[in-house]
Amino acid sequence: MSEGLSPGEPRRLLIATNHLRQLAGSEVVVLETARHFAARGCAITVFANWAAAPMAELIMAATGAPVVTDPNRVRPFAYDMAYVQHQVLGLFDYRHAADERAATRIVAGRLSRRSYLESGGWLHDRILVDHVLANSALTAEHLARIGHDAPTTVFHNAAPDGFFRPFAAKPATPRRILVVSNHLDPALADAIARLRPGIAVDHVGEGGGRVTLVTPAMIAGADLVVSIGKTVPYALASHVPVYVYDHFGGPGYLDGDNLDAAARYNFSGRCCERRLSGAEIAAEIVGSYAKGVAFAREPRQAWLDRFRQPPYLDRLLDPPLVDNAEKRRRLIETAFIPQERMLAWHVRKGHVEREMLTLEVATLQQRLRAMAPGGLVD
Predict the structure, then answer these.
(1) Residues 108, 109, 113, 118, Cα dihedral to 10°
(2) If you classify domain 12-155+310-358 with CATH, what class do you get?
(3) Fewest C-beta atoms under 10 Å: which of 253, 299, 310, 315?
């Protein structure tokens, strides 16, 4: 058994989130969390209001069990620890049962300050959550402003250990560029078209050449990574030059002058309100490549360790702050909890209905394409 886990029965872990379908930010955090604790021998249950391929299949491969989508089957107090995202705590059953743990360590991941599902501050959070992992300093500051007083750690959207490797020599100009984006900015798309005649550009994400998980080998095999958000720490950990730009704009190549501001905004590109044309992006990617290489070579391991994911996830192994009997008492005695539960179920219903409608529209579009001239009719 790995360090931090006691011998005997594997610790039971609940991971709960709103949706698991796309290969995207919050879904990848769930997958990486599941893989981290599966490697440590934990027995893992994953809940989502909506689950579908491809992410649901990857979760099942990691945990050995399908994603649970019925909240009535989830009792958080039956687990030793729980990692939760989005506003799902109000969906679950907290009544006493024979297999209940004396105490359950509950850690909430907060991955944005702008999204309703990520906003935090619900009474369920205040009563049940022992610790918060915030993806950026801005998210942590937002939680403090709304009065959420649970201990909070900024985890910098950190990367699993597999991404960490020494700096490898780079060419004078990039020969292989990896672009990771599910929402490609039109100017960035134009820049890719301008670069492609002389440079191999691999666009991973919605609307790109392929939709797949970003792996350590993909990052290490690139001379340059162009992306925002969660992919940026992957590049930093791999000592690969990174150009931060997408639909929010961005600072371009990271360096010692812009890194702190970019990180404060979770490498979203919002840090500087800087917009460029496709021609300008392409010229900067090639012309300032040496700047990106110099910064990729520079960081020392002690600095990079802020982007190492396992120590943050292992906060789930710390002792709970309050036992489950006390948490239940607070739930029962807090007047607005029943209304919050209704709101959580309302949010769930709206999301599930939207996903079902999206699925129906996609099926109808597929049938219409088949009925077009030259197509096959079902």
Answers:
(1) -70
(2) alpha beta
(3) 310
- Burial letters 144-167, b for 16+ CB under 10 A, else e: eeeebebebebbbbbbbebbbeee
- Count CB atoms within 10 A of the CB of residue 42: 21
Class of domain 162-306: alpha beta
What φ, ψ does residue 288 adopt, rounded to 5°? -110, 20
Spans of all domains in the chain = 12-155+310-358, 162-306
Give the separation between CA 261 and CA 269, rounded to whole angstroms: 10
Which residues does 322 contact at the CB level (< 8 Å), separation at least 6?
A: 103, 130
Start-to-end CA distance of the chain, whole Å, equals: 53
> pLDDT tens, 135-194?
999 999 999 988 888 899 999 999 999 999 999 999 999 999 999 998 889 999 999 999
pLDDT in tens, 35-85: 999 999 999 999 999 999 999 999 999 999 999 999 999 999 999 999 999
The pTM assigned to this predicted structure is 0.91
